């Protein structure tokens, strides 16, 4: 992470792994205000660590920033770096949350991972840290639980 040399505005190759991916942060222009910033990744992809088959999820990331915001291009590249990464749903979801919390040190953070069925069973993973500041509106994630065809 380097504030001086952001990936924004220059050609950047897709990282080959989440460990290689660089996440950039930028100063929050309203550090005196509590508000929610949301990122939604409806086409997140990773690989099953056992079979190598692709897994798909709809991720929703909400945070109340303090001094820093995540730069969206770097987040997009970071999330895309999971395409060839083998990990279980729980690991992907929580690892993304922990990495962003380490980078941003937000007042509040939550990630919701709505994973499409594997073996006939959808797995939804939720993780959060921090207390939602009083008076902050945190909308529902907007993703319906899996219902199949029923």
From TrEMBL:
The keyword Secreted does not apply. It catalyses: 7-aminomethyl-7-carbaguanine + 2 NADP(+) = 7-cyano-7-carbaguanine + 2 NADPH + 3 H(+). Its main location: cytoplasm. GO terms for cellular component: cytoplasm. It is an enzyme of class 1 (oxidoreductase). It is found in: Cytoplasm. It comes from the Bacteria. The keyword NADP applies. SUPFAM superfamilies: Tetrahydrobiopterin biosynthesis enzymes-like. Gene3D superfamilies: 3.30.1130.10. Keywords: Cytoplasm, Hydrolase, NADP, Oxidoreductase, Queuosine biosynthesis. The active site is at residues 48, 55. Belongs to the GTP cyclohydrolase I family. QueF type 1 subfamily. HAMAP family: QueF_type1. Catalyzes the NADPH-dependent reduction of 7-cyano-7-deazaguanine (preQ0) to 7-aminomethyl-7-deazaguanine (preQ1). This is NADPH-dependent 7-cyano-7-deazaguanine reductase. The lineage of its organism: Bacteria, Pseudomonadati, Pseudomonadota, Alphaproteobacteria, Hyphomicrobiales.
């Amino acid at each position: 992470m380097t504030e001086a040399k952001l990936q924004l505005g220059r050609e950047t190759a897709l990282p080959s792994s989440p460990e290689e991916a660089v996440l950039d942060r930028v100063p929050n222009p309203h550090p005196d205000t509590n508000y929610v910033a949301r990122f939604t990744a409806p086409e997140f992809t990773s690989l099953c660590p056992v079979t190598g088959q692709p897994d798909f999820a709809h991720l929703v990331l909400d945070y109340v920033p303090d001094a820093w915001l995540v730069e969206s291009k770097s987040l997009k590249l970071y999330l895309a770096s999971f395409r060839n990464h083998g990990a279980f749903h729980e690991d992907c979801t929580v690892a993304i949350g922990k990495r962003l919390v380490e980078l941003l040190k937000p007042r509040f953070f939550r990630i919701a991972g709505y994973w499409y069925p594997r073996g006939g069973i959808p797995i939804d993973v939720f993780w959060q840290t921090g207390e939602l500041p009083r008076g902050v509106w945190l909308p529902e994630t907007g993703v319906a639980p899996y219902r199949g065809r029923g």
